[in-house]
Amino acid sequence: MKTKSLSLLILFSIFSHCKVFDPLTLQKTPPFTLSQTPYYQAWISGMFGGGSGINVFIPIEEPKHFRLDSLHFREQKVKAVYQNKSIFACFKTTDNQNKDILEGIDNSLLSTVDRSPFSLKHDACILSYQINNKRYYYKIEDLQQKPSIGYPSAPTD
To answer: Does 112 fall in a domain?
Structure first.
């Protein structure tokens, strides 16, 4: 009986350090200070089949003591980067894609979108970041929606 209990204890301790048991707990305070209200902005290419997406901007003061990982928004997860004094992420959408090219491709090849494990409101996101190689999550709600950008088409010859 002691051997069985000891085996179970060892197994539990091993699995408790795995990411399977990592409870995606949200932090109450972020490791940064917002410099402006976070927002998102849809965009569409002016060229047929040029694509579209939604950019998310989280304006912050200089990032210190943490490393950006990813941003979760509208059931997707993409890499987050720091540029132009903002945490930035671009989420591609299926609008304005060249359907003729997509019809001949196996659907399993198109599912390259990294799905988020979080269920969020339409105007919320979760930032994943690391401090000392430990992952943390911070939820940002009530993202401001800015007007869409329609990029001009390519010049004609």
So the answer is: yes
